[in-house]
Design a protein that fits this description.
mainly alpha, Growth Hormone, Chain: A, 2 domains, 15 helices, 81% helix
Amino acid sequence: MEDKTRSLAFLSLLCFGLADVRDGLGPFLGVYLQGHGWTADKIGIIMSLGDAMALLCAAPLGALTDHTRAKRAILAAAAVLITLACGALFLSAAPLAVGVSRCVQAVAGAAVGPLIAGVTLGLVGQDGLPSRLGVNEAWNHAGNAASAALSGLVGWYYGIVGVFWVMAAMAALSLAAVLGINGRQIDHQVARGLDVDASRPPLAPRRGFPPRSLWAVALTVGLFHFGNAAMLPLLGQSAVTRFGSNPALYTAGTVIVAQATMIVAALLASRLAVRRGYGALFLLALCVLPVRGLVAGLYASEWVLLPVQILDGVGNGTLGVAMPGLVARLLRGSGHINLGLGFVMVAHGIGAAMSHAYAGYIAHLFSYETAFFALALAPCVGLVLYIVSLRRFPDLHRASQGEGHRA
């Protein structure tokens, strides 16, 4: 068997570098535009425009990943496009220029997830996927934590332009990592899910795609992020409003605690996936999130940051391993694994987008505590939906099981 150790090492490095690149300037974009006279409503519109573009392109980009053999080249192009689009913002902060830049970033960023999943599956196959997904997630979260710390330090001395140079350095690291992966070692048939019976034609998207079991996974993921996405921003707003916390330091603390926990959670989740299956990870993530909401709502203290963000790390760390793994196993043999992953990411995006408006409205009408409780309800609905789906769809039940639980 061909030794893929070098390619897998560079894949880890790629996950580390792209963790920063795929989000562009991230939360620093709003601060930069604010410094150029943009009001909060206009910043919100431009951010929403990018989110909408990412949602529209997620499934088509997944389909492209299934059909192309140039996955490494597209990953490199995405990193370059995001960097150039962010750099263009420093040349002009006019609405048209910012709008185009944001759309380019969003579309290129949306391509990264399916492409990384495709390259990973093509390198390790279905049997090696559970453990490898944990490694990918750990390096991804390590990249997020490292870039956040470095961006904060450089930005302190050089302003937002320093954050851009950190991102550009991460992009250069990503390009080097892409070149280090041996393209000949990527099995593109396996990468799209045709490793069971390569002689069988792919399942036609118009005739049975997406299957109902994938709809159940997508809705479950959407409900998870509907309850999860707004909890961190709401936690920061609550701390500043109720306790007068320093917003920059408190937000940084929430990110660091969560990312550090996610690294550990992702590595442990990959081991659990082998023994118990992806279904166990889904159930764990769905059970942790309501507890997180209850803790945030019941305990009025700045130090609630620690348990709430540790639980966030557990929930997101396990779901980050479970979701792509379950989709890959569920659609094995279809030839459309990455299209399916893009489809689920659309549900993820819709749930996250709705979460902020929902939580903000509840907090405005009632209180932050009520908003936390309201957010905790969504994953409970997702938990019921997933359990019912396991009973109703045999293919989902089989895909959710670990290797040791297969008949």
